[in-house]
Model the fold of this input.
Amino acid sequence: QVQLVESGGGTVQAGGSLRLSCVASGIVFSRNAIGWYRQTPGKLREMVATITSDDRTNYADSVKGRFTISRDNAKNTVYLQMDTLKPEDTAVYYCNAPARGYYNDFIPGPHYWGQGTQVIVSS
Done:
């Protein structure tokens, strides 16, 4: 079975930093794109950052320049380094893996999700 397990969430003051981790199992990790999404109550889940199997990255405009996604294939782990955090970054952050192995906006397919980790940024 596929499992994605997030960790690293917590409460920080605005301007602070957190590093989230996602450990994956049940997939060929080195060949799979991984993404971070976030969701707040009453809002749609939004993409934060993605990283491909060959280390190409994509970021939401709202986090570009502040967040960095990276991967360590030897540890089956993807990280999200979050710097200069803002109160609007408060959300539950989810790790995501497309079952097909890569993100494609035009071809539907199943995705795997972690359970989420809470990030709270106080003002």
